[in-house]
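Action item from last meeting closed. Structure (301 res):
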């Protein structure tokens, strides 16, 4: 059910035929490939309208991000499965709003929980490839579903806005920027660049190269839909990735500028300068964490 292997041609069919060409395209158009999803009742400033739990497949489905351990939500997932036993329960990363329901769902359905790392699983609606994309957390991954022209991106991007949390001790900004490059390479067929920050002169330290860009490629010209765990689907992935990268690089630039002017290398000292005194009090801790990640990134260059 889970094959550990090197990935290639992730947006092609299992037999190597590109989706969107010939009989593959005609078949997909005759039977629309769309995921089903539920929104957990855990809305907040960090989760937006709540965590989205995705189901790919019918008779042999995969569940992606089972969500928080809320009985009503777990029961709703079971009802949507309609008696089918998932081939795998996939967690994009081990934050409780994504993972806490996994054990209960596994107990109820008898489904295995993905242990982490690169993996390929089979559903009755096509294969899903799991690709490490650290940055938000060290264990973060995305789930690529070629038959649905879809990538389930967890918290790599949100369905609204232009930023997601990257904060120590779990978050690493260098890894996050590299993971954006991997996702961009996947949806555009462009090779992942070696470095995202144009102001940095040295290559990324070897210890932070957790993502393998050569493992992803796209041979399909049709657009890919990104499905974040928080917020609606993203139908223009190239623009969204560019927006997220641009936002983060602008923050890096402004922090470098503030440090050059003599401000202390301290998140609290930089908070109002970078985010403004009017920042929502509910977001101040996240902003401090983001600044800590930026300082860590700058200091590592």
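Sequence:
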């Amino acid at each position: 059910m889970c094959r550990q292997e090197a990935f290639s041609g992730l947006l092609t069919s299992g037999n190597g035929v590109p989706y969107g060409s010939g009989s593959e395209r005609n078949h997909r158009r005759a039977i629309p490939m769309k995921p089903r999803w539920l929104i957990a009742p855990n809305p907040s400033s960090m989760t937006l309208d709540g965590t989205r739990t995705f189901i790919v497949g019918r008779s042999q489905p995969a569940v992606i991000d089972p969500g928080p351990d809320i009985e009503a939500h777990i029961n709703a997932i079971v009802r949507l499965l309609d008696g089918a036993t998932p081939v795998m329960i996939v967690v994009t990363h081990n934050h409780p709003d994504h993972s806490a329901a996994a054990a209960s769902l596994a107990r109820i359905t008898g489904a295995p929980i993905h242990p982490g790392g690169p993996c390929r699983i089979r559903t009755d609606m096509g294969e899903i490839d799991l690709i490490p994309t650290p940055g938000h957390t060290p264990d973060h991954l995305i789930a690529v579903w070629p038959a649905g022209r879809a990538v389930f991106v967890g918290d790599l991007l949100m369905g609204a806005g232009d930023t997601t949390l990257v904060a120590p001790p779990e978050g690493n900004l260098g890894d996050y920027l590299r993971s954006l490059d991997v996702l961009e390479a996947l949806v555009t067929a462009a090779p992942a660049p070696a470095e995202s920050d144009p102001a940095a002169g040295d290559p990324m330290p070897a210890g932070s190269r957790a993502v393998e860009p050569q493992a992803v490629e796209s041979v399909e010209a049709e657009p890919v839909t990104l499905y974040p765990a928080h917020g609606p689907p993203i139908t223009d992935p190239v623009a969204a990735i560019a927006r997220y990268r641009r936002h983060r690089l602008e923050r890096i630039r402004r922090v470098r500028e503030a440090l050059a002017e003599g401000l202390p290398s301290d998140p609290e000292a930089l908070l109002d300068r970078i985010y403004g005194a009017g920042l929502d009090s509910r977001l101040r801790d996240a902003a401090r964490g983001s600044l800590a990640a930026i300082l860590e990134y700058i200091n590592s260059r």
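Note appended to the action item: The domain at 22-235 is CATH 3.60.15.10 (Metallo-beta-lactamase; Chain A).
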